[in-house]
Specification:
Blueprint lengths: L4 H6 L11 H13 L21 H6 L1 E9 L8 E3 L1 H7 L5 E9 L7 E3 L2 E3 L2 H13 L5 H4 L11
Antiparallel strand pairs: 1-2, 1-3, 4-5
């Protein structure tokens, strides 16, 4: 007799034919669903870290898009910033979560009032973008700690 009756629900004697690895089976199921649907190269792509370098054209526009991915299998897996070309491939891979963050490069640093309303500063804009990205990749706000990264006064 079990002290806790629910333990009996957890434990069940199985022979070797019944033993399964749920983690590997879920990965196989994903691959099986995509079999014959086209290019499987995204499943075998590993992201390569990319250090964003805004160009003069980016500074004239005032914004850039930054691309981030992390393996979906572990929340402790490191977040990786990648370029757009890698992002277009890896975002199709169900084993990765991805986010695009719009990053403000120029303008006023702090939010202030104007006769037309509130002007969102670079610091606050980038903090808000990071929080939006955090809904897709939890922990990205810890990865992007400097909201004035790449800021340039024009």
């Amino acid at each position: 007799m079990y002290v806790f009756p629910w333990i009996n629900l957890w434990y069940k004697k199985m022979d070797d034919a019944e033993r399964v690895n749920i983690h590997l089976n879920s990965r196989y199921d994903v691959l099986a669903r995509h079999r014959g649907t086209g290019d499987l190269s995204s499943f075998f792509s590993n992201p390569r870290q990319y250090r964003c370098k805004p160009s003069e054209e980016d500074y004239r526009r005032g914004f850039i898009d930054r691309f981030f991915v992390r393996k979906n299998t572990s929340p402790n897996y490191p977040i990786c910033e990648i370029d757009n070309a890698q992002f277009q491939i890896i975002r199709k891979n169900p084993f990765y979560v991805s986010a695009v963050i719009s990053w403000k490069l120029t303008g006023v640093i702090e939010t202030r009032e104007d006769q037309d309303g509130e002007i969102l500063g670079v610091s606050d804009y980038n903090k808000l973008s990071t929080l939006r990205g955090d809904t897709f990749i939890p922990g990205i706000e810890n990865f992007l700690q400097n909201p004035l990264e790449f800021y340039k006064e024009i």
